Amino acid sequence: MNMLQVTCAIIVHKGKVLAAQRSSKMDLPGKWEFPGGKLEPDENPKSCLVREIQEELNMEIDIFEELPPATHAYPTKTIRLIPFCACWKGGEIRLLEHEQIRWLEKNELLSLDWAPADLPIVHDLIENWVKLVVSTEF
């Protein structure tokens, strides 16, 4: 079974992080995720993520840290999810693929029904909240 390389962004803004709900057109409809997408051949993860966030949400981001990847085996595919912390630097948010978005505080993260591949990243984010979210407010 192929391993898909997928990037995702933990977008930080005003002490909260962005979560996006998958639409009915996507796999795992209704599940929440950190937005991002599949790497194209010969694309590096950072440029992939900048492109995907622009395409899906019309947002410009500044990436400031790469986090440990998480691997998850679904019944039909295995995903290696490569997370990056980023801040929102421009663009007016438009939902071009997702059902809805929410800006979440640390204590709200576990209230959503996350896609299984994103869950280890959610837990990592909760553990490192001060380092990743609080310290990024510039």
Structural notes for this entry:
Strands 1, 2, 3, 4, 5, 6, 7 and 8 form an 8-stranded mixed sheet that branches. The longest helix has 13 residues. The mean pLDDT is 94. Strand 1 and strand 2 form a beta hairpin. The chain has one domain: Nucleoside Triphosphate Pyrophosphohydrolase (Alpha-Beta Complex), CATH 3.90.79.10. The N and C termini lie far apart (43 Å). It is globular. It has 138 residues and is an alpha+beta fold.
Helicity range = 10-25%
Biggest sheet record: 8 strands, mixed
| CATH level-1 class | Alpha Beta
Query: What's the gyration radius in Å?
Result: 14 Å
Number of strands: 8
Shape: globular
**How many angstroms separate the termini?**
43 Å
Residue ranges: pLDDT <50 for 5 or more in a row?
Answer: none
CATH architecture: Alpha-Beta Complex
- Helices and strands: which structural class? alpha+beta
Order of helices and strands: EEEEHEEEEHH
Number of helices: 3
CATH fold node name: Nucleoside Triphosphate Pyrophosphohydrolase
Total separate domains = 1
Average of the residue pLDDT scores = 94
The fourth-level CATH homologous superfamily is: Nucleoside Triphosphate Pyrophosphohydrolase
Strand content: 35-45%
Quickly describe the structure.
The chain is α+β, with helices and mostly antiparallel strands and 138 residues long.
